[in-house]
Every structure is written in C-alpha cells, then in structure tokens.
Amino acid sequence: MIFNLSDQADKGFTNASSYDMHRPSYPLEIVDALLAQLQVKGVESARIVDLGAGTGKFTELLAARDEKYEVVAVEPHQEMRKALSAKLLSTVDVVAGDATNMPAESQSVDAVVAAQAFHWYERFATDEALKEIYRVLIPGGNFGMIWNVEDYNAPKSWEPTTKWEATLKEIMWSYDDQHPRFRHESWRKVFDKQLSSTPFTIQAAVPLFSLPLGEASVEFTHWVHPDAIWERFRSLSQIAVLEKEELAVRILYSSKKQSTNSPVSL
User: What's the predicted TM-score (pTM) here?
Assistant: First the structure.
C-alpha cells in the first residue's frame, strides 16, 4: 500500500539518520506518567501500537521497559521505517501503515501512542484516524499523545526561556507553510468535533474518546554541541524542505525584522 504523505513530511524526513541523531528522546518521568495514564504501566507483555513511530525515538523507550511490551511500530515513511528496523529492537514489529490504515486486528491492542506525530493533518488528526485508533483498541483501551516541544517551536502564548530562542521562535512563526504543527494546536479540533451535531447530522451521544483531554508536562533541558544546533533545526520538516537560497532569505529577513525592535544577542 502507498501512503499519501505531504511534501513536507515526504521530503523533510528523507534524511532519517540525521533526524534520529539530532532529535531528543523523551524524559523518563513523563513517559512513566503517560504509560500509567494509559493503564499499561506494570502490565507485562501489554500490546502497544506506536503510531507514526518515525525512527523509533519513543519506540526505543517502550522496548527497554521491564514490562517487555509487545510493540507494533507503525510508520508510513519508508526511510524512517528503515532507520527504525535497523535498530533491531526486540519485541518490536516495524510495519508500514498510518493512522487510517493500521495492520492490526480489531480490539487487539491495549494502548495506542502517537509520539511527535498527531499534528499531521493528512493522516493523523482526522475523524478517520480516531475511528481507526478506536477500532484496534480493546474495550477500555487508551490513546495517548506525546511531544517534545522546544521553546522556539512552541505555541505563541508560551514564553521562551532565552533571548536566542525567542528570536528563533519568531523565525519559525514568520514562515507559514500551511501545514499545522503542534504549535498551532489545530490537532485538538478533531476531539472537539466528536460532540458536534446539527439538525441534519446526528452523531453518537458518546464520543469515541473521553473529553476533556487529560494533560501533563515536564520541563527539561537537552544539551547539544553548538555545531549540532543547525542540524537539529534542519531536522524540522518545514526547514528541511527549503532550498538553501530560500532558507537564507527567510532567516536574514526575520533576523533583520527582530533587530529593528530590539537588539538580541545570538
């Protein structure tokens, strides 16, 4: 089966090895809390779908757990799947698929997790995706989402920690490629739509997934070598797809705009 990825996802994640090298993992504290909320913490051999697993940044943490989870890592991007498969993680089955096409039997998994993925509209934050996730979950199963959110790639209302991250955040928000990311928070709408109805459309009185969404967060610092900062930035799909000339113009323009208001030391 061929999966229709957006150009940003298809081209932006082609360099899967660089993505895997420069993207941070997840704090064990918040992973532990998420698995507890999904009711699989301490459950030996629980079956979990890692949806949009990418190169396996979250998959690795599941595979290392004492519970010895049976993990189905579902990923539509071929290069990402190759990078994940190469890790040879025990108890992990790496398969092609996306949020609307999961190779799993109905009511066969205890939990579904989307790590750094559910904001992608094309195959994730849709009505069809919620129905597919609901299909594979056992009765009473749970769906969780987790993101690493750097200060410069966060919603506008979030205050950056440092001046250089504030400058970088302005650059990120100045470039709108019409593809919602976590920072736009548009992914929330698909859950709210579960309760919508009109005189002409009647939906089930009970939504597929409970509302309001339970939420938790933890702040942490990820240290990188100065030489790696640019590579980390380029692992973002909206930056990775830009040509060199366009990227230079974007950054030069945004930096000059910032300097007309107040000087910022980078």
Answer: 0.80
